[in-house]
Amino acid sequence: MRPVAAFLALALVAAPAAYAQTPGPNRVAEAQALELLKRGIAFRTVAGEGNQTPEYANFLKEHLVAGGFAAEDVRVERLADTAYLIARYRGTDPAKKPIYISGHMDVVEAKPADWTRDPFTPVIEGGYIWGRGASDMKYDLSTLVATLIQLKREGFRPSRDIYLLASGDEETSMKTTQKLAEEFHGAELLLNIDGGGGEIDESGAAVIYGIQGAEKTYADFELTFTNAGGHSSAPSRHNAIYSLSRALTRIADYQFPAEINEITRAGFEANLKTADAPMAEATRRFLANKDDAEALAYLRSYPGLIGQTGTTCVATTVQAGHATNALPQRATANVNCRIFPGTSPKAVQETLTRVVGDPELKIVELDSGTVASDASPLRPELMKLITRLIHARFPGVPIVPSMSAGASDSMWFRARGVPSYGVSPIFMKSSDGFAHGLNERTPLSEIAPSIVYYRALLRELAK
Ligand SMILES: [Zn+2]
């Protein structure tokens, strides 16, 4: 509790005196964020029939316009059953590239019967707000919108345009994200408020803060063997199930080459601070020579680290045969790959084909609605700024660049050359992490610091 308590005490003491020069986040913005969040959770913004994302988008638009945005600067565009929202906070210098803020309005499906509380009725209890989207990601969207309105109220005029780009199907097909990235790809940088974030331990002390600067490419490959089949009493050497089994065994035994980039290097370096002796040794050796087989094997024995050392592919489903007394005519497996930035899915497909080494293999990449994207460069200025803002709340907490397993909205912007960073200010206990799951919740205590953070971040980047 110490860092949080210390920070809150400081904020309470400092706020009234400092208000005249730098009007800080006040009760109005905090109350509005909570109101937006509560009412936002009640919109059932789930893909499919009854999708209320368009209504939620219009609700946000109404608040932005009431909060000082010109009506023509806030657009809600429909796409199939959903919608996306574009809000433009006009800057004074048209020569300066804009800043984008990316988030999403849709949520993952939630079956009320599985929840102890109705997922679309916001409940405030025990210091938390509960409901679908309470964490992913109506919380950040609400505090951000309240901050934008706060900045308008303060009369802040950014030097450059700030665009809020809120997608409407991040959790499913990302078609609205693709639309947004098609229209908006000329930014200085993009802040994804659905990525990054911090962790606190059970006592409330900050453990780590991650900035998402890269993500792996998601790809599914379908591997198929087909045979003539026949009666199971007269087996031949040709058997689709055996062929597929051999293929999968070879893939299981294959290790993709070690890779390292600026983001993962920085992540491993930060890990050194808390690593035990064997982990620190393996990490140092890997950083000195990524192909150090022993070090690599050690790191790859950790499921949480293997993905940070290169591309991974793993069999996830199989279907084979059509009758218990017949030779299989067909055996199919899905191999799911998380591809290291810089490698194309096509190159991975070629590798899998070579590894299997069976001319009868048919392999196709399934359309998973994703795209390959490069890692965003670690900008020293941005890193410094985020570090300063996070340290204002939690002094000394390690700030660690991270590469996620994919796929977030950032991928579509990165693929178009927009450097994108996941920079949500929310700190949570891992025991409170229920995004996509049951009884999703976020502590209300994150509202005030989120507004402090977003306000300072935007003021600084668009000063
Ligand atoms: Zn999300």
Q: Uncertain regions: pLDDT < 50 for 5+ in a row?
A: 1-23
Number of domains: 2
Residues in helix, % = 25-40%
Which class of secondary structure composition applies to the elements?
alpha/beta
Ligands bound to this protein structure: zinc ion
CATH superfamily of the largest domain: Zn peptidases
Which CATH class of the largest domain applies here? Alpha Beta
Spatial ordering of strands, largest sheet:
1-2-6-3-7-17
Biggest sheet layout: 6 strands, mixed
C-alpha Rg (nearest Å)? 24 Å
Shape: globular
CATH topology of the largest domain: Aminopeptidase
Got a strand count?
Answer: 19
The total count of helices amounts to 14
Strand residue percentage: 15-25%
Q: Between the first and last Cα atoms, what is the distance in angstroms? A: 34 Å
Work out the oligomeric state of the chains in this entry: single chain
| CATH architectural arrangement of the largest domain | 3-Layer(aba) Sandwich
User: How confident overall, as mean pLDDT?
Assistant: 91
Explain the overall architecture.
This protein is an alpha/beta fold and 463 residues long. 36% of the residues lie in helices and 22% in strands. The strands form 5 sheets. It has a 6-stranded mixed β-sheet with strand order 1-2-6-3-7-17, with helices on both faces. Helix 2 (27-41) packs antiparallel against helix 4 (138-154), helix 8 packs across helix 9 and helix 12 (380-393) packs antiparallel against helix 14. It binds zinc ion. Zinc ion binds next to loops.
